[in-house]
Every structure is written in C-alpha cells, then in structure tokens.
Amino acid sequence: MEQLLQQIEQLKQEMNAATGSDSDAAEQFRIKYLGTKGIIKGLMGEMKNIPNDQKKNFGQVMNDLKQLAEEKWESLKGAAADAGASAGVDFDWTLPGAPVNVGGRHPISIVRNQIVSIFKRLGFAVAEGPEIEDDWHNFTALNMPENHTARDMQDTFYILQNPDWVLRTHTSSVQARVMEKQKPPIRIICPGRVYRNETISARAHCFFHQVEGLYIDEHVSFADLKQTLYFFVQEMFGKDVKIRFRPSYFPFTEPSAEMDISCTVCGGKGCSLCKHTGWVEILGCGMVHPKMLDNFGIDSSKYTGFAFGMGMERICQLKYRVNDLRLYSQNDVRFLDQFTGGV
Ligand code: 2NL
C-alpha cells in the first residue's frame, strides 16, 4: 500500500509536468492515463489486493488521481484549440458553415419576367434584336418621316463610324425585323434596353427598358387591344385596378392612344404620385398603321393589328415606389438588397 501511494504521488507530478499545445499531445495524454488500457485503469485493478480497512482510503486517492488527470486532459485540449485557432490549423469541421449570400434579381428583371409570363399566357412569343440598329429598322420602316422629332440629334445616339447606324430608340425595330421574316399571324412581345440622348436626372436617363407588343392577324380590333391590356393590368397590379384610354399620336399607329391605370397608391382618390388626378399613365398603344403593314408586304386590306409600348422603369416605379431612375443603374446594394426573393 505504501509503495502504491508513493507511485501515485509520482504519477501526479508527472501529469502536472505534462506539456503540449497540439491535439496529438492531448490525445497521447488521454491514452496514457485515462485510456481503457491506461495507467489509472491499471491501478484500479490493484484494489483487490488492498486490505479491506484501507479500501476506502485507496478509493479516495484513486478518485483524486482520476480527477486530476481529467482536468489536465481538458487543459491540454484547450491549449491545442487556442494554438490551432491562432495558427489557422486544426479547424473544427463540425462548426456550422458561414451562410452563402445568394443575392437577388434586379428589380427591372423581376418586372420583365412578370410581364413576359403574363403575355406568354396569352400566346405572345418573346422576340429579341440588336441594340445597334440601322436607320431603316429603327425609323424609316416604322413610318417615321425624315424630319420626325424622334430622329432629332438630341434624342438619338448616332454611331460615328457609320451615319446609318444608331443605338435603337425603341424595340419597335425588333418588331420590324420579325415582320420582315414572318407572315401573320404574328403575336410577339419585345423586351429590351433602348437609348435616348437625354441629360441624366431622377426622371430621365440615357437608356431605359421597354416592352413592346405586336399582334397582327385577320379581324384584330381595338376591342382586342383593350381586353389584352386590361388583362395585363389586372394580372400585374390587381383585379380592382381600372384602365382608361386617351387619344394620342404615334407615327406607327392609327388610331393611337395612351393608357392610364387608376392610381395604385391612392386607389384613385388623388395623391402626389398621380398629381391628384387619380390616374397614372403606363403605356402607349394603337392600331398598326396600314402603311407599316404595306412596308413589310403584309396585305393591309386583309390584315389588321394592334401594338403597344411601355417603359419597364415606370411599371417598376408603380409596383415598388422607386422614385429615382438613376437607382436602377447605380448598383448600390442598399437599393438592390431590397428586392431579394424576386424571380
Ligand atoms: C410608348 C409607346 C408604342 C408602338 C409603341 C409599334 C410597333 C410596331 C408597329 C406599331 Cl412594329 N407600333 N409600337 C405603338 C404604339 C406605342 O410605344 O410610350 N412606349 C414607351
């Protein structure tokens, strides 16, 4: 017994002196002292040789020894974790991962996708075309006389290398390209970026995004135009939103109209957004000018059509209350972060 107690004292000193700052050292320590074939387990086996009146005392001594070993093991593990953290090694792979920032769609993309999906349900196909256009597709084919204001140097970006080339001022040029190749029935929408030479401010920019629509077939009437656009408004803004048409002028449509919706902010009662009229303008439209159909070899005595065009920024402003056009292209995450979750 005396000899055993001496051995235990020695072990305590040995354990206290144990050092190490990596997980290997901690594990070696555990195996040596606390393992199933370790020293402490071995000493416990001596219990059977201890005289009965000293068993209690020996048990106490062994408990102390075991507790000391466990404390020392914990402290070695702690030292290993600290050293690992500062050296960047021994990473704890069981920790939960850092969240991945998936981002979100741009508000203009959200609105474009919504518009496209609504018109797709009505049987409209999406058509796309080049942003650099020639004079014919952007102006002449669309019944725009040479002295028309839309051709004015102030509105149009001309390409220096070739005076016949422009940055398209509307996506009607895409529709012109479709009419060139395809015969009626034609039922398309053309979303895309267009360019105007304007001084940049909260209400004007040198580019914006447009969706134009075109439907040409036999017996297409203004009633079809109205019902199509009414369906679009109800899907986009809600069933209780009203529409109204005002006579207007576009060189490629006759008759032409502008369409308003009842104000989505005040519901038509009058507020600052609708300038206290209860109505906000959202698009221009009309029946395709017969001269345009003839330009593309489409028999205007047999076919009729309607067309419309709208600015996506305007739709987005009404849906999300964006009050400054510049926000769309500044890439400020404080703005963009507000649209995460859109599709
Ligand atoms: C607006 C008005 C409009 C059209 C676009 C069009 C295209 C062809 C034939 C006839 Cl190919 N019309 N487009 C018609 C009326 C209005 O846009 O305010 N856009 C932002």
Give the helix/strand layout.
Layout (H helix, E strand, L loop, with lengths): L1 H16 L5 H12 L4 H6 L7 H36 L19 H15 L3 E2 L5 E3 H4 L26 E3 L4 H10 L4 E10 L11 E11 L4 H16 L5 E8 L2 E10 L16 E10 L1 H6 L8 E8 H9 L12 H4 L7
Parallel strand pairs: 1-4
Antiparallel strand pairs: 2-3, 4-5, 5-9, 6-7, 7-8, 8-9
Helix pairs in contact: 1-4, 2-4, 5-10
The structure holds 2-{3-[(4-chloropyridin-2-yl)amino]phenoxy}-N-methylacetamide.
2-{3-[(4-chloropyridin-2-yl)amino]phenoxy}-N-methylacetamide binds next to helix 7, strand 5, strand 8 and strand 9.
Cofactor: Mg(2+)
EC number: 6.1.1.20
Family: Belongs to the class-II aminoacyl-tRNA synthetase family. Phe-tRNA synthetase alpha subunit type 1 subfamily.
Describe, in plain words, how this protein is organized in 3D.
The structure is a single chain. By secondary structure, this protein is an alpha+beta fold. The chain has two domains: 2-87; 107-339, BirA Bifunctional Protein, domain 2 (2-Layer Sandwich). The chain has eleven helices and nine strands. The strands form two sheets. It has a seven-stranded mixed β-sheet, sandwiched between helices. A two-stranded antiparallel ribbon has the order 2-3. Strand 6 (243-250) and strand 7 form a beta hairpin. Helix 2 (23-34) packs antiparallel against helix 4 (52-87) and helix 5 (107-121) crosses helix 10. The protein starts with a helix and ends in a 7-residue tail after the last helix. The mean pLDDT is 91. The structure holds 2-{3-[(4-chloropyridin-2-yl)amino]phenoxy}-N-methylacetamide. 2-{3-[(4-chloropyridin-2-yl)amino]phenoxy}-N-methylacetamide binds at residues 172, 175-176, 210, 212, 214, 250, 252-253, 283-286, 288, 292, 307-311.
